[in-house]
Design goal:
The protein is built from 30 helices and 19 strands. By secondary structure, the protein is α/β, with parallel strands linked by helices. The protein folds into 3 domains: 259 residues, 2-enoyl-CoA Hydratase, Chain A, domain 1, CATH 3.90.226.10; 170 residues, Rossmann fold (3-Layer(aba) Sandwich), CATH 3.40.50; 187 residues, N-(1-d-carboxylethyl)-l-norvaline Dehydrogenase, domain 2 (Orthogonal Bundle), CATH 1.10.1040.50. Helix 4 crosses helix 9 and helix 21 crosses helix 23. The site of (S)-3-Hydroxyhexanoyl-CoA has 25 residues, from strand 5 and helix 3.
Length: 702
């Protein structure tokens, strides 16, 4: 079947696009549209309607064609043909008109949309800018400020708002085709001149050149903070400046030049990789297509602390009721108060109405009795991180829960197989590892035990999608994918401290690299007591080399637990939580170095960066060779969505390929010589790929 069809409906020619799943502008679609528009110029039609079959209007350029040899017509060329049509073209939008999809609609002469439709220019999320006239047409319709907001955030807006800012002409109810035909007939009856956006001027009324100069300067400053390290947002501003100050065709040239620059930038390659990695991570290798999904209508959560409460919010936010279990009425009340505080914060930010917040909290029922979990379809345990306690909880669940219920643990380290063995139904046990704050963080690490059934794994993937999380599947090992790698990253941060760096040196290097926060600032946020308490339950051998935690222990013993006590690796202003350097910390570090017989000396930024990132990467390779992660891109998803790794570097494993595996392997070998083999042993897979001259991407695709 052809992806484009053309048919006369009375006086109107209807161009229908059908390129599932999202009508991306593949080469076939572009040439089909061009042929239909060309054909319509000489037929009996008086106007044309452009619309899409399936779930959505065009969702953008076909990202899978990026980086391949160009095939004509390009999208900008096609849009010139569309806009030049002598007959008016009406775009009829449903679903999402995104990127090149919205740009196509903007090259039409009129736009109508269903109320449920959304429009947006998300190119910035791929490290790009709208490259088919969007940067020049949008400001001509909406003015400069709205155009800047739309393109630099990449966030879609609803049809009503699009109408409000002038991006579309009409919101229509009911059947989209009938409404679009009516609109086309109105246009014909009015006999108005064709409305080509290229002919409009950007609105400059009531504003001066100084106003715009200041607006662009302020905007650039904000972008530098908000999208630290990213190039595309700044190039978008440049394009919009061109739209304001130059004729349309000149502006298009600026847009093209900067679009090509973005396309050739490693940041865009990394973000394109993340786009597909995010979608790939929900696919489970070897899962039979006919795997049945379980119906999840009622969810039980054990533990109403920070984690349990956050997890509960995820479910009630999408209309799934929750029973929250705590050990006492007081603990339950504390949990509910915490949830109420979280919702109040969302309301105060204007992101939720008071009514909705109340409605959601009413969907949480508290209990102290395990029997109230008998009918739950899914129970998630979020109690203290201790294997014995978790095993006791699962034994109780095994006694009360109905057969077929999924029994999940939110453990971040413990052995899911051992937890499963404390029940008579290990096939129903799985790890669902949320990240704090659980109502905000996007990652859900799904930990498959040796006996977990396909049904339970597939349902867990579906649960992740329904609560809007990004899943990544892990096999069982200490810390799974994320925390296992993090131990090595944190180890190097501690060793750098001991050997010569300060917390601010290390944090600055990692923040400049693009991490959301440096490792020591994260330590203060999470609480220095967390690691200390986790170590208490370990043998000396499990704890590892004392040099990797002696500074943290010393701070703990001084009562410096991080932000919550106003001091940790830094000191914190009690009112603003602003952090500052505390000279005491350097004294603590120097004392520990002396105790350990370590002579402190300057460590370069380059070495800090390599020690921390290569520690992550080397462990990532071990995780792959052991089959803990399904594929390298899943590890990237874990780090980008759970640990603040800059998406514009593509996650640690994609980053490894951009640096070159040979360089990483040789540096790891050097580190083994310099810092000790107890910390650095190159992963066998890393060595193998270097010997074979392959990249990790080649290995993953082989
Ligand atoms: C652009 O337009 C550049 C222009 O300015 C200039 C050009 C010169 N291409 O997300 P889903 C696939 S840049 C190729 O799970 P949902 C996706 O990989 C583009 N494939 O569905 C997945 O495949 P699979 C600007 C695409 O309902 C399947 O479709 N546009 C594209 O949760 C389903 O996707 C964007 O950035 C694409 N453009 O969400 C929009 N889009 O089944 C990107 C999707 O094999 N897309 N696929 O895993 C989206 O944001 C979401 O897909 C959308 C649907 C909201 C549309």
């Amino acid at each position: 079947m052809s992806v484009v069809s053309y048919q006369l409906e009375g006086d109107i020619g209807v161009i229908r696009l059908n390129n599932p799943p999202v009508n991306a502008l593949s080469h076939a679609l572009r040439s089909g549209i061009q042929d239909a528009v060309t054909q319509a110029q000489d037929d009996a039609s008086l106007a044309l309607v452009l619309m899409c079959e399936g779930r959505t209007f065009i969702a953008g350029a076909d990202i899978s064609e990026f980086g391949k040899p160009p095939m004509l017509p390009s999208l900008p060329e096609l849009l010139i043909v569309l806009e030049a049509s002598k007959k008016p073209i009406i775009a009829a939008i449903h679903g999402t008109a995104l990127g090149g999809g919205l740009e196509t609609a903007l090259a039409c002469h009129y736009r109508c949309a269903l109320p449920s439709a959304q429009v947006g220019l998300p190119e910035v999320k791929l490290g790009l800018l709208p490259g088919a006239g969007g940067t020049q047409r949008v400001p001509r319709l909406t003015g400069v400020k709205a155009a800047l907001d739309l393109m630099t955030t990449g966030a879609p807006i609803a049809a009503a708002q699009a109408l409000n800012i002038g991006l579309i002409d009409k919101v229509v109810e009911g059947d989209l085709l009938s409404a679009a035909l009516d609109f086309a007939n109105e246009v014909i009856e009015q006999g108005a001149e064709l409305k080509r956006v290229r002919d409009l001027e950007v609105d400059k009324t009531a504003t001066s050149a100084e106003y715009f100069a200041e607006l662009f300067t302020d905007y650039r400053k904000t972008l530098s903070k908000r999208f630290r390290g990213q190039e595309a947002p700044h190039r978008i501003v440049e394009c919009i400046e061109a739209a304001l100050n130059t004729p349309f065709d000149e502006g298009l040239k600026v847009e093209r030049r900067l679009f090509v620059e973005c396309m050739q930038s490693p940041q865009s390659w990394a973000l394109q990789h993340m786009f597909f990695a995010q979608r790939m991570s929900s696919k489970v290798k070897g899962l039979p297509k006919d795997t049945q999904l379980k119906d999840i209508k009622r969810v039980g959560i054990i533990g109403g602390g920070l984690m349990g409460g956050g997890i509960a919010m995820n479910f009630v936010n999408v209309g799934i009721s929750v029973t929250l279990l705590e050990i006492s009425q007081e603990a339950l009340q504390r949990g509910k108060d915490l949830i109420a505080k979280n919702y109040a914060m969302t309301v105060s930010k204007g992101k939720l109405t008071v009514e909705l917040a109340t409605q959601r909290q009413d969907m949480i029922t508290g209990t102290t009795d395990y029997h109230d979990l008998a009918d739950m379809d899914l129970v998630i345990e979020a109690v203290f991180e201790n294997l014995d306690i978790k095993k006791q909880v699962f034994a109780k669940l095994d006694n009360v829960c109905k057969q077929g219920a999924i029994l999940a643990s939110n453990t971040s380290y413990q052995d899911v197989n051992l937890i499963a063995q404390s029940t008579s139904r290990p096939q129903d046990v799985i790890g669902l590892h949320f990240f704090s704050p659980a109502n905000v963080m996007k990652l859900l690490e799904i930990v498959r035990g040796d006996e977990t059934s396909n049904e339970v794994v597939a349902t867990s993937m579906a649960i992740a999608k329904s609560i809007k999380k990004v899943p990544a599947l892990s096999r069982v090992c200490y810390g799974f994918i994320g925390n296992r790698m993090l131990r090595h990253y944190a180890r190097e941060a501690q060793l750098c401290l001991l050997e010569g760096s300060t917390p601010q040196d290390i944090d600055a290097v990692m923040q400049n690299f693009g991490m959301a926060m440096g490792p020591l600032a994260v330590g203060d946020l999470a609480g220095i007591d967390i690691g200390y308490k986790a170590r208490e339950g370990l043998t000396d051998e499990q704890k590892g080399d004392v040099r990797t935690y002696c500074i943290a222990d010393a701070l703990y013993e001084m009562g410096r637990l991080g932000q919550k006590t106003g001091a940790g690796y830094y000191q914190y202003d009690p009112d603003t939580r602003q952090r500052s350097v505390d000279p005491v910390v350097l004294e603590v570090i120097e004392a520990q170095a002396k105790k350990m017989g370590v002579e402190r000396k300057v460590i370069s930024d380059k070495t800090i960066l390599e020690r921390l990132t290569f520690a992550l990467i080397n462990e990532g390779f071990k995780i792959l060779e052991e089959g803990i992660a399904q594929r390298p891109s899943d590890i990237d998803v874990v780090y980008a969505f759970g640990y603040g790794f800059p998406a514009y570097r593509g996650g640690p494993m994609f980053y490894a390929d951009t640096i070159g595996l040979e360089k990483i392997y040789h540096t790891v070998c050097e580190f083994a010589d310099t810092y000790g083999e107890e910390f650095w042993q190159p992963a066998a897979l890393l060595k193998q790929l270097v010997e074979e001259g392959k990249t990790l991407t080649q290995w993953a695709n082989s």
